[in-house]
Amino acid sequence: MMPRPDAIFVADDLGLDFLNSIATPADVVVDWLDSGEGLLSWLEQARMVPAESLQALREQAMADELDGVAAQARRLRDWFRTFVEAHMGRPLGHGDLAALAPLNRLLERDERFEKVVAKDDGDRLDLVSARRWRTPDSLLLPIGEALAHTVCDLDFRDIRACEGHICTLLFVDRTRGRGRRWCSMAVCGNRAKAAAHRARKRGR
Is the residue at 145 inside a domain? Predict the structure, then answer.
């Protein structure tokens, strides 16, 4: 079995990067959330959960529990992709709130709290937000938070789908002229340039 490639983070938005956790980076579909271990690895690469908390859940939870949470994450991903694709191209408003009920139900389960910690320099204290990771289900909470930021912080008119022939990646177009076409120039952009070059040679 071929090793799984590193997860893809090209969207310039963590919620859209979550949607991009299933993709076709090299002509074969890769689902980074295909198992509990896959979900843990993706969350670690996304830096959404502290490494020590992920390790504790690896040691405490049964494999089938983690696989069940990964299945929930895939369903959440499918639901949010449907929402994004239905609404991209226009700003969100009050009329879209009812469609976000599944996301609000997830956010209501969160167990965040504030705590006082020492800053890195050791000379000052700081108030930071933390989260309790009591069960494998808690792994869905930072994902829900990222999706909420996507909904509330992004202008959905700036969400684009890569124009690559087989690419399914989404991203935020933050370029000045809103002219970004590719998830990555190094991947789909180069593929398109190579295809155009071949077409010109055939034409000659």
Answer: yes
Per-residue tens of pLDDT for the chain, all 204 residues: 567 889 999 999 999 999 999 998 777 899 999 999 999 999 999 999 999 999 999 999 999 999 999 999 999 999 999 999 999 999 999 999 999 999 999 999 998 889 998 887 778 899 988 898 989 999 999 999 999 999 999 999 999 999 888 889 999 999 988 889 888 876 686 665 555 545 556 666
Is 113 part of any domain? yes
Nearest by Cα to 162 from 2, 4, 23, 15: 23
Global pTM reads 0.87
**What is the full DSSP assignment across 69-93?**
HHHHHHHHHHHHHHHHHHHTTS---
- Give the domain extent around 85: 14-90+100-157
Note whether residue 48 is domain-resident: yes
Between CA 91 and CA 41 the distance in angstroms is 33
The residues near 80 (Cβ < 8 Å, ≥ 6 apart) are: 15, 18, 19, 103, 147
Report which of 15, 23, 165 is spatially closest to residue 4, judged by C-alpha positions: 23
DSSP 157: G
Is residue 163 a part of any domain in this protein?
Answer: no
Domain count, the chain: 1
